[in-house]
Amino acid sequence: MREKITKLFVVAAVAEACSWLALLVGMAVKYGPPGNEIGVKIFGPIHGGLFVAYGVLVLAVARLHRWRTWPTLVALACSVPPFATLVFERWAARRGMLRTAPEPDRPRIPVG
């Protein structure tokens, strides 16, 4: 279960960033020369749903992995600026905050 929720969090972080890109393109088309609102009408609700899903998954992963309050708040805040969910997910992965299994013990090599 822990591994599944963690993977869903990673997928949600990437999907939320992609939906930001689609929404930004839709906004450029809406307010640019074509003046067509279809992109915003399609990607607005998709982005909204992924925004909520990411927030829920942040809370679930934070609880499962026992994150402290500060990283949890940063993860939630990263849902607001475009593409920040990707940055946070990569940062958390590098810090080991998304590990689903404990690291195996390394064999000790005797010296000398």
List the helices and strands and how they pair.
Layout: H1 2-31, H2 38-64, H3 69-77, H4 84-94
Helix pairs in contact: 1-2, 1-4, 2-3
Describe the protein in words.
The chain is 69% helix and 0% strand. It has four helices and no strands. Helix 1 runs antiparallel to helix 2. The relative contact order is 0.16.
> Average pLDDT value?
90
Largest sheet: none
The H/E string reads: HHHH
Instruction: Measure the end-to-end span.
Output: 45 Å
Beta content: under 5%
Low-pLDDT segments, ≥5 res: none
Shape: elongated
Q: Tell me the radius of gyration.
A: 18 Å
Number of helices: 4
- Class based on secondary structure composition and strand pairing: mainly alpha
Helicity, as a percent range: 55-70%
Number of strands: 0
Question: Can you give keywords for this protein?
Answer:
single chain, 112 residues, mainly alpha, 4 helices
What's a concise summary of this model?
With 112 residues, the chain is mainly α. The chain has helices spanning 2-31, 38-64, 69-77, 84-94.
